[in-house]
Every structure is written in structure tokens, then in C-alpha cells.
Amino acid sequence: MIVRIMGEGQVELDQSELPALNELDAALESAIEADDEERFRRALNALLDSVRERGSELPADSLEPSDLVLPPADAHIDEVRAMLGDSGLIPE
């Protein structure tokens, strides 16, 4: 699976990583629902760090279609709120 982190590039991740990412996504969604900026920032960074650590960065010139698109680390809580689907940023 290919994950794009906006402003950074793409990471290839094994499908088996989805459950762990969904837990982090749920924490992010909870922080957004509570409108808790500090919790939001921690949760977003944890999600992005996990993707970076668990995946393999693709070359910058790679143009693979992305299965998931995640916001950049400096995204505003309202921007991420607008990106949320019915199941968060990462579908189950």
C-alpha cells in the first residue's frame, strides 16, 4: 500500500500495518472531536512518525498512485477535520 504524506512524499507500507495505524487514527479523530489542539498535534505526529518508521520511503521521482493521503505535520486542526471521512483518515 502506498501512503502519501502531503509535502513530504510517498511511503510503501505493508497492509499488515493497518490495525496499528487505525489505532493512531482513532486517537487523532478523538482529539479533533474534542477540539483539543495539543492532543491533536501529538496524535498527528504519532501517526506520521509511525508511517515513516514502518514504511519504506519511495524515491522522490516516483509517481505511484496513493492508497492513502495524510496531512502534513504542520496541518491545522480544521484542515485535518475537513479531510476526515466516516472512518477517519485511514479506512478500516
TrEMBL record:
Residues 1-92 form the PspA-associated domain. It comes from the Bacteria. Pfam families: PspAA (PF22743). This is PspA-associated domain-containing protein. It comes from Actinocorallia aurantiaca. The lineage of its organism: Bacteria, Bacillati, Actinomycetota, Actinomycetes, Streptosporangiales.
